[in-house]
Hints:
- This protein has 155 residues and is of the alpha+beta class.
- It is globular, with a radius of gyration of 14 Å.
- 46% of the residues lie in helices and 21% in strands.
Amino acid sequence: MEKLVNKYADKLIKAGLAHDPLICGQDEDIVWNRQDDAIATLIEVMEGMDINSLIYAEPAEPYRTILAYLASIYPDCIFPRDCETRTFLHDLPITRRFSADALLSRLLKRKSVLIAEDNGLHIATFGTVSPEQAFVTFSSVCFAGFVLFFSQYLE
């Protein structure tokens, strides 16, 4: 599992989606790609869901600024208009605090949550089979924000 979580951490970095992602995967034990203060809260999230992997990361630019802007104009949920996002993600829920309860209340209904706090913006996504699912969802959230921002700009 260690190789797998490191593989997807590297993929996020190489794709320009995040600089220092925190990723875990679970077989018998939960394995993290690195140490972080957020792990205690994220373990509570893992325990509250039937999942085997989780990504928690601040998106890289330009996605960080785009998603932070969208989170500032959509108080609880971002509603992308592109067909792919509406079909697979439906919407992008937002929480203003990083807590297990806040994340669980959204991740039990959706594949991702944006955590928009005063000190920055993070995305949390999960996989039920492998970290690849969490990676694809993280990428899709960044893309959905990108498309929504520029389509609104062009309007």
